[in-house]
Amino acid sequence: xxxxxxxxxxxxxxxxxxxxxxxxxxxxxxxxxxxxxxxxxxxxxxxxxxxxxxxxxxxxxxxxxxxxxxxxxxxxxxxxxxxxxxxxxxxxxxxxxxxxxxxxxxxxxx
Length: 110
Description:
The structure is a single chain. The protein has helices at residues 10-23, 35-51, 56-74, 89-95, and strands spanning 2-5, 80-81, 84-88, 100-104. Strand 2 (80-81) and strand 3 form a beta hairpin. It has one domain: GTP Cyclohydrolase I, Chain A, domain 1 (Orthogonal Bundle). It is built from four helices and four strands, in the order E-H-H-H-E-E-H-E. By secondary structure, the chain is an alpha+beta fold. Helix 2 (35-51) crosses helix 3. The chain has a two-stranded antiparallel sheet with strand order 1-4. The protein has a two-stranded antiparallel ribbon with strand order 2-3.
């Protein structure tokens, strides 16, 4: 696990590395999630809502909720922090006055 922080905050860096290992985010922030991934998730959420027979008037809200959930799942900064689920990773970094510039997650066999 490699985590690049904008300042030297070793204990926070270790906690963030452990979080990344456990929760496997794909991107640092929501801005880095490719538009085509979001569009694909949006289409899938809409198809699922229609298949489930949700009312037409509710589909847009359902789709937005599912897309928001997807983005939170794949974006490190928006995930609930592993050691304190009441806070996001972004809140933990703000408290430590640092930020994640990048990360690389490696698995055995890669």
